[in-house]
Specification:
About 40% of the residues lie in helices and about 20% in strands. With about 240 residues, the protein is α/β, with parallel strands linked by helices. α1 runs parallel beside α4 and α1 crosses α6. It is globular, with a radius of gyration of 17 Å. It starts with 12 loop residues before the first helix and ends in a 6-residue tail after the last strand.
């Protein structure tokens, strides 16, 4: 399938994830540090008291890896996990979860819940047509001063990170995706979408333009150092 300069048209991304859902956990499980890095981003939200009394949003939960990361950081919180791919959600729901975790098949812009005491968005923003509108939506969904953590690839600022990303994609991710699913379209899209996403500094600026305060980023250890980051910011207003 022919891809555009940014990969798949964004309206087609959920269907592509539907087709890859059954094999998705096996593929990401081969990525050293994948789950630990999600847990690290969730811990960086610094949610108090194990999440007691908090309601959190996992935006773009996929098969539930980011949901599990939130749960590990805030085991006493109520978690609403959403995704636009019904098949990815089916994989997530098939796993064992406490009653405090609830999965909803929806796009973030269509979510009619909140406010939330924190949002984790992993590998989501670069797959949307309008990241600015999405960030404004997050600001609306969050209580004043509540944290947003965006766990995302960003390589545009670093020649080394781009080389690492290219090497990993073309030697591992794309061949493994083709072997596992018979179709490498989603994984070629992944390569394109990361290559064309904001640099880390530009994305921090995007967060600030859309109202977030105390914006900063922290990267990952291991091979994803400088490739995957936790971008953190607090929603407009002051928490009471």
């Amino acid at each position: 399938m022919k891809l555009g300069p940014r990969g798949l048209a964004r309206a087609r991304v959920p269907a592509a994830f539907d087709g890859a859902a059954a094999a998705y956990d096996r593929l990401v499980g081969a990525n050293p540090g994948y789950h630990e890095h999600l847990r690290l981003s969730a811990r960086r939200m610094r949610l108090p008291g194990g999440g007691a009394g908090l309601t959190l949003l996992d935006a773009g939960c996929g098969t539930g890896a980011s949901t599990a990361a939130l749960l590990s950081a805030a085991p006493q919180a109520n978690i609403v996990a959403i995704d636009a791919s019904g098949e990815m959600l089916r994989q997530a729901r098939a796993k064992s979860w406490p009653d405090t975790v609830r999965f909803v098949h929806t796009r973030v812009e269509d979510l009619d819940e909140g406010p939330f005491d924190g949002v984790l968005a992993a590998y989501l923003l670069r797959n949307l047509d309008d990241p600015d509108a999405q960030l404004r939506r997050f600001a609306d969904l969050l209580r004043p001063g509540a944290p947003l953590a965006v766990h995302e690839y960003s390589v545009a600022d670093s020649p080394r990170a781009r080389l690492v990303w290219d090497a990993v994609c073309w030697s591992i991710i794309i061949p493994a995706g083709r072997l596992t699913t018979g179709d490498a379209t989603l994984y070629r899209h992944l390569w394109h979408s990361v290559r064309t996403f904001d640099g880390a500094t530009a994305f921090e600026d995007r967060l600030r333009r859309n109202g977030f305060a105390r914006v900063h980023r922290e990267t990952m250890p291991g091979w994803q150092h400088g490739v995957v980051h936790t971008f953190l910011g607090d929603a407009p207003g002051t928490r009471e």
